[in-house]
Design goal:
3 helices, mainly beta
Length: 465
């Protein structure tokens, strides 16, 4: 959501849905007590209410949508049900639920049809016919509901075009509407041969062009472990391969386009997350992430953090992924480049009481304090790469070093003077936070230099150590 710090909401297998902060003001990190359970059975999609930060919408299996109030604890079931005498709707174990980017307060939910959900989840309207093949031999299930088949599995709204929705089914059908569901066009016939009849896993409409979209398909159910990502630039009439050089035996679960740069893509596979800077021709694995299934990816619109949801290894955040979006071929051709840093907010993290849970204390890391400074280094060189921070009067306040390895290099400045610029005996003596203001950051190696401005704000408070 757009809280400061922003919150993340998601589901756990067999352990309901939860909401928690992306960071805390505690030196202990992000603990159990910082997370709130918001109901469900198995947990799936979640949506924040755009008007009331206390309200969240979440799911249990088979489309059991509910609204939860984190302030009062109110829980209300909201799954759409047919009128008396009408056939029941079919819902997948993991039913798509999305909040509209164009109609605040509107959500879209999918079963075998697509629903428009309004009035805090209280009202629903069927806005599509049955979009599946509706084969009785395959859609009748007598088990737990996990066997349900013949449903819309992927649902997405265009960020560019109000009223444009894409829907894909587990039995290989692809649809689009341009008018909020009044009329739907089937695009199945134009799909590449390798996708015919496949379980269509995820759709990503472009942030930059309404006619462009990406389709990710994990085809392992039919014995195909290849990574399958395809891009259309003409509204689904034709498709081009965008899987490039992804590992040959890593099915793709999700693909996302960067909101700032259409050439930058992120992919979640069965064995980790990858990034491409050239629309899928070449891919690089994101380091530091375990070789785990990546079910979903989200890019925070304000912070430009990349949030990664895994199946079995919790949530991960790549803090400030904007340098990836800014790494154009022109910048990559430079020997050295400093990317514009995000404004930095300084405060003293508090040391408080840790919730006692016996041996079951789960601790997530906070992002590093201060400013993240990221530089591009084109080539290896014996000359060291230096970072210098100066105040508005041109006085140095921090001298930092970068590894200088080819590629993206990053260092976190804690908004304190570095030791070499302090007077050991006399003067300030201690490393207090620098005053708020605009600072100049320069990266240099030999005669090469690149400079950016950094805005620093400092929270008022008491330092506790």
């Amino acid at each position: 959501d757009d809280s400061v710090p922003y919150r993340i909401c998601g589901g756990l297998q067999d352990n309901t849905n939860w909401v928690g902060p992306s960071q805390t003001n505690s030196q202990e990190g992000i603990l159990n007590a910082d997370w709130t359970e918001i109901g469900g059975g198995d947990g799936f999609y979640c949506v924040f209410d755009p008007f009331d930060r206390d309200l969240l919408y979440a799911e249990a299996q088979e489309g059991y949508l509910h609204r939860f109030n984190t302030r009062t604890g109110e829980h209300k079931d909201l799954r759409p049900e047919p009128t008396e005498g009408q056939p029941r709707y079919r819902f997948h174990w993991n039913s798509p639920l999305i909040g509209s980017r164009h109609e605040k307060g509107t959500m879209f939910l999918a079963g075998n049809v697509v629903f428009r959900v309004t009035d805090r989840g209280e009202r629903f309207q069927v806005i599509s016919p049955d979009l599946t093949a509706n084969d009785p031999a395959r859609t009748t299930a007598t088990g737990s509901g996990a066997e349900n088949y013949g449903v819309v599995y992927a649902l997405a709204e265009s960020p560019r075009a109000p009223g444009m929705l894409w829907a894909a089914t587990d039995d290989g059908r692809l649809w689009r509407t341009r008018d909020g569901g009044a009329a739907w066009t089937e695009l199945t016939a134009g799909l590449p041969a390798v996708l015919k009849g496949q379980w269509l896993t995820q759709i990503e409409p472009s942030w930059h062009d309404a006619e462009t979209a990406y389709l990710a398909v994990a085809a392992y159910r039919f014995g195909n472990d290849a990574p399958l990502i395809f891009r259309t630039a003409d509204g689904g009439k034709t498709w081009q391969d965008a899987a490039g050089d992804l590992p040959r035996h890593g099915p793709v679960r999700v693909v996302r386009e960067d909101p700032k740069n259409p050439s930058v893509l992120y992919a979640g596979t069965e064995f980790g997350a990858f990034v491409s800077l050239d629309r899928g021709a070449r891919w690089t694995k994101l380091g530091g992430l375990p070789p785990v299934i990546v079910d979903d990816l989200a890019i925070h619109p304000r912070e430009h953090d990349l949030v990664i949801g895994t199946h079995g290894r919790s949530l991960w955040i790549v803090d400030d992924a904007s340098p990836l979006a800014a790494l154009t071929p022109e910048i990559a051709a430079k020997p050295l480049h400093l990317f514009a840093p995000q404004p930095a907010h300084g405060s003293y993290r508090l040391r408080g009481w840790v919730e006692s849970n016996g041996g079951a204390v789960y601790r997530g890391e906070n992002p590093p304090e201060g400013a993240l400074l990221t530089a591009w280094v084109r080539e290896l060189d014996a000359e060291p790469v230096k970072l210098t921070v100066m105040d508005a009067a041109g006085r140095p306040v921090a001298n930092l070093a970068l590894p200088g390895t080819p590629g993206l290099n990053r260092v976190a400045w804690d908004l304190r003077p570095t030791k070499d610029l302090l007077t050991e005996y006399g003067g300030e003596g201690t490393r207090k936070l620098v005053p708020p203001g605009v600072y100049t950051v320069t990266v240099s190696r030999g005669t090469e230099r690149s400079t950016q401005s950094l805005t620093v704000t400092i929270a008022e408070g008491i330092e506790t150590r």
